[in-house]
Write a structure and sequence with these properties.
The protein is mainly alpha-helical and 227 residues long. It has 2 domains: 8-80, Winged helix-like DNA-binding domain superfamily/Winged helix DNA-binding domain (Arc Repressor Mutant, subunit A, Orthogonal Bundle); 86-226, Four Helix Bundle (Hemerythrin (Met), subunit A). 74% of the residues lie in helices and 4% in strands. The protein contains 10 helices and 3 strands, in the order H-E-H-H-E-E-H-H-H-H-H-H-H. The protein has helices at 8-32, 44-51, 55-67, 86-107, 113-132, 135-149, 156-168, 170-180, 183-198, 202-226; strands at residues 41-42, 72-74, 78-80. It has a 3-stranded antiparallel beta sheet. Strand 2 and strand 3 form a beta hairpin.
Length: 227
C-alpha cells in the first residue's frame, strides 16, 4: 500500500450512498409525518435542487423508499406517495393478526429486566409525547414498542415482515388516531400488555394484542370510509 487515497469513483460512490441515506431519511420523515400526503408526486429534479445535490443520490433515495413501500415509482409519472386502499388495509391487519401474537408468545417469556426497563421508558416517553401532541413521534414510538416486545422471539424474518407492516400503515394510523382520539386507548393497552407479560400471563397478553390490533384496524377502516 502506498497511502494513495480512495480512487475518485469509489469516493463518489461512498458520498452518494451517504447523501442518498440522508435524503431518504428526510423524505421518509415528511411522508410519515403527513407533510407529503398520499397522491403527491416527488420530482427528482425539484428534490435535487432543494437538497443541493445531484439527481443520482435522489434517485437512490427514492428507490430505497419504494423498497420500504413509502413511494411507488411509475415509468412516466416518477415517484408518487401511494394511497392505501381498504383492501390493502384489510390485508395489512390480517397479516398483523397472524404474525404479531405468534411473535409475542415466543418473545415474552424471554424478555429480560433490561427489556422491561426499556419498555417502561418507551411508555413514559409515549405519554409525554401524547400530552404534548407531538404527532410525529407517535408512529416511531409505537413501532419501537411493538418491535421490542417481539425482539426475543428469535424469528428475524417474521420480525422483519412485521416491521414493514407497521411502517406501511403508520401514516394512516397516526392520522386516524390523532383525529379520533384513539391515542389514549392505545396508551392504556400498551401499558396493560407490558403488565401482563411481566406477570407471566402470556396467553392473556396475546389475546389483548389481538384485540388491540383488531380495534386499530377497525377504526382505521371506518376512518378511511368516512373521509
Amino acid at each position: 500500500m502506498d497511502g494513495t487515497p480512495l480512487t475518485s469513483p469509489l469516493r463518489k460512490t461512498v458520498q452518494h450512498r451517504t447523501i442518498s441515506a440522508a435524503v431518504a431519511a428526510e423524505l421518509r420523515r415528511r411522508i410519515l409525518d403527513g407533510e407529503v400526503p398520499a397522491g403527491s408526486q416527488l420530482r427528482q429534479d425539484a428534490l435535487a435542487t432543494e437538497f443541493a445535490v445531484s439527481r443520482i443520490p435522489v434517485r437512490e433515495a427514492l428507490m430505497q423508499l419504494e423498497a420500504e413501500g413509502l413511494v411507488k415509482i411509475h415509468p412516466h409519472r416518477g415517484a408518487v406517495v401511494p394511497e392505501l386502499s381498504l383492501a390493502e388495509i384489510e390485508e395489512l391487519f390480517e397479516l398483523r393478526l397472524l404474525l404479531e401474537p405468534r411473535l409475542l408468545a415466543a418473545s415474552a417469556p424471554q424478555l429480560s429486566d433490561d427489556d422491561y426497563a426499556r419498555l417502561d421508558r418507551i411508555l413514559e416517553e409515549y405519554s409525554d409525547e401524547l400530552r404534548a401532541r407531538h404527532v410525529s413521534r407517535w408512529g416511531e414510538l409505537n413501532r419501537a414498542f411493538h418491535l421490542l416486545l417481539y425482539s426475543r422471539a428469535e424469528k428475524p424474518r417474521t420480525a422483519g415482515i412485521v416491521a414493514n407492516l407497521l411502517q406501511d400503515c403508520d401514516r394512516h394510523t397516526r392520522l386516524q388516531l390523532s383525529l379520533t382520539g384513539g391515542m389514549e386507548r392505545a396508551e392504556a393497552e400498551h401499558a396493560e400488555l407490558v403488565h401482563l407479560c411481566r406477570a407471566g400471563r402470556i396467553d392473556d397478553a396475546c389475546e389483548l394484542l389481538r384485540a388491540h390490533i383488531e380495534n386499530v384496524g377497525r377504526a382505521l377502516r371506518r376512518f378511511l370510509e368516512e373521509r
